[in-house]
Amino acid sequence: MGAFTKAGLALAIAAGIAACTPDINTDPVPVSMEWQPLPPRVPSPSGLIINPATHLIDFSLAKVAVPTDCSTQIAAQQASCRLNQWLQTLNGYPTTSPATTPATAPLDPATLTLGTNVVVVTGAGAPVSNVQVGFDAGTDMLTVAPVPAWELSTTIWLAVRGYQNGVLAADGRPVVGSPTMSLLKQETPLDCGATSPEQLDRSCPAYDLLLSQGYPPALAAATVAQLEQARQYYLLSGAFDLVAAAGIPKSEVAVLWGFPTHTNSVAELSPPLLVPQVTAAGQLAVAVHGPVDPATVVPFIVRQQAGTIVLMDLTAVGQGDLVNGLPPITAQLSGGNIVITPAAPLPAGHTIGLFFTNGLKDLTGSPLVASPVSVLLTLQGALVDAAGHSTVSGVADADAAALEVGRQQLAPLFDNTALTGLTGINRGNLVYCFAFPVGVTP
Fold first, then answer.
1. CATH fold group of domain 31-260
2. Tens of pLDDT along 388-429?
3. What is the pTM of this model?
4. Distance in angstroms (rounded) separating the CA atoms of residues 152 and 155
5. In the chain, what is the straight-line distance between the N-terminal and C-terminal CA atoms, in Å?
6. What percent of the chain has pLDDT over 90?
7. Sequence spans of domains, the chain
8. What is the CATH number of domain 266-437?
């Protein structure tokens, strides 16, 4: 399966200005780090859509409505709807989420130097170096992928240096910041201190600018308010100071964005880097990020013991052979891994499914968070359309196509109520879901 490449998943903020004079004008059409709300071309993931009251991801802050009943959506939107519903249960982004930020034209990859032109720091100012910086020419996206994962319960800030000393476009032109980024750098309130939209008038520069661009007064006022909230978020976080200390002064920042990761432990899954490891003894080891209560690591043994760890020979189950399809196993926590040991060697060529339920808890009693790939594999709703394009915003076509194969293979299992009743696993309670053929590296 391909890697889950973009966990930002349509994370847009409803803040931006369609046109404005950039703060470099040496070229009539400068290349910029893009930030526009509609259609969304924004940095992601974004802490701007963490609800300050619930501390959960909240797409409504981006003016994106997530239906409560995804079955009412058209087929092409059901998978995305269900994934967004799941994301809104998290108090931060998945630890395998790559960070992305769009450009208006191709960039020169040789100038995307980590630590110089691309800076990654934590909210405490510590540099983050275990990342891979790249550029996706197909989408004109600069990408920063964790290797293998971000730390739990951590805020990540990323900045790109622009202008004369920074990143260059593929044609050699200097890259500049977007109009939105310029406004977010302002030292004074964009709403000029107005306490209500009615108090705004054309003496307020940001409001006047929007009106001059054809915004209706109500929309202009709402956009100014949203931009000011975003500016305050950057100010209170000390984001510009953090990246300045790391080497990029505010005046040279072309784009800056940040996001928190979730706090709960997670059994990591992000092919090809984070997959079950097969030991020489035929054991399976799954890396867990964060603490786990060892008392909750309980193997399922058919008709003997309900469990949080289920190993299934999907080939045998597909042939109606439940005796061999649910082989006895042991499971234990060892060195940050959940280690599963089958009682007998697994048959070569058979496809094995490995499932963990939310009965797995951390030391505080909180359930493990599902990995995004596991969620995608359990969704009802195709991950690709008839043309082979991804139906999930932020998941690349190739990744969606690879995951769709696995999703279709697992769908009969989740639709078999007798089997799910026997094993205790279902779409709603899984935090880990992966399948692989024996004898082939997962």
1. Immunoglobulin-like (2.60.40)
2. 999 998 788 999 999 999 999 999 999 999 999 999 999 999
3. 0.89
4. 9
5. 9
6. 79
7. 31-260, 266-437
8. 2.60.40.1220
